[in-house]
Write a structure and sequence with these properties.
elongated; two-stranded antiparallel ribbon; 32% helix; 223 residues; single chain; OB fold (Dihydrolipoamide Acetyltransferase, E2P); 6-stranded mixed β-sheet; alpha+beta
Length: 223
Amino acid sequence: MTKYLTLFCFALISVILIVEDVDSCMFPRDWTELPLKDRLTAANTVILGYVTNLVPSTETREDYRNNTVIYIPQYYTAKVLVTCPFHGVFNKVRQAAIELAPVNTGSSCKFTTIRKHNYYIFMLNDSLSSVKQAPMEVNYQSAAIDLTELSMDVVRTEFGKDIVKLGDEYSCPPASETKAKRKDPAKLIESDFGKLPKPNTANKITHLGLITLIVSFLVSILF
C-alpha cells in the first residue's frame, strides 16, 4: 500500500510541475496569430540588424537529456549591429550596436530564437538611445523576423524603405516611386506624332494674287 501511495504522490507532483511549466507559457484563451504587418506597426522600435554574437547568461537551469541532468544557460544576449532603423525614436545618440536580451531562452516559451551571423528585422521595446534592449514580442510572437519577400514588402509599404542586398550586406534606400506622372494629352499626342505643320500665310497671299491677275486679263480681253 505504501509503495502505491508513493508512486501516486510522485505522479501527482510530476503532473503539477508539468502543468505549472505549461501554464506559464499558455496563450490567452481567445489567442489568434497576428499578421506581420500589425505586429511591426505595433512595436515601439523596428530595425534591420545583424547578429554578430550570442553570449550565454551566467544563470543556468537544469535540463534532462538521455536520463542525465545537464545545466544550460537560462538565456542568451545577442550582440546586434544596427543596419537600418525603420520605426521608433532615433535621436542623435542612436546606437550603432545594441545588446538584445533575453533571446534563445531554451524554455518552452522561446518566442524569439535567432542564429549568429544572420540578418533579422527586430522589434524592440525601447528607443535606440539605449544600448540595452529587450525584444518586443507582440502578441506572444517572435520579435525577430527573417528576411523574406513578405517581410521586406511590409517594410516597404509601412515604413517607405527598400531592403536591398549588396554582396553579403544590406542597405535600406527610400522606396522608389512606382506611380508614373500623368502627361498632358496634347503633349502626349505631340510627342507621339510630332508637331502638326502650321498653315503658310505667304503661300495663301501668293495664290490669291495670281488668281486676281488671271481674272483681270480675261476681263480685259472680253471687254
